[in-house]
Amino acid sequence: MVRVVNLNFQKCDVEVCRPGPFGNPYSHLLYATAGIHVRNRDEAVDRFAEYFYSEKGRPLRERTLAEISDNVTIGCHCAPKRCHADIIAGYLNWKRIPIQGIRGM
Fold first, then answer.
1. Residues 5, 12: contact at Cβ < 8 Å?
2. Which helix (H) or strand (E) segment is 44 a member of?
3. Which H or E element spans position 59?
4. pLDDT score for 32
5. How far is residue 15's CA from residue 84's CA, in Å, rounded to a whole number?
6. Predicted confidence band at 54 (pLDDT cuts at 50, 70, 90)?
7. What is the distance between the alpha carbons of residues 71 and 81, in angstroms, rounded to a whole number?
8. Is residue 30 predicted with pLDDT exceeding 60?
9. What would the mean pLDDT of 11-30 be, rounded to a whole number?
10. Would you say the pTM of this structure is higher than 0.85?
């Protein structure tokens, strides 16, 4: 299971911040290094999710699966507020659901 933590307060295995490969290119903060500024946090996370799950986002999804293993903690500066790291963790946890977990429901 992939968990999300605020890397300012907890250790993490993988940082998903800007300017790294897993960073969110959308931000509501004027001083952020994001390439695309939006109105608020919700829009930044929503736009990241749209991109991440789009055809254009396929390379990022593939890289995410290849480079972030199971049972790790990913860190961003936003957590526990709504964050693009939640999108990444949700995707990884969804893709790696064990078959027996589904049958046991």
1. yes
2. helix 41-52
3. helix 58-67
4. 72
5. 12
6. very high
7. 21
8. yes
9. 92
10. yes
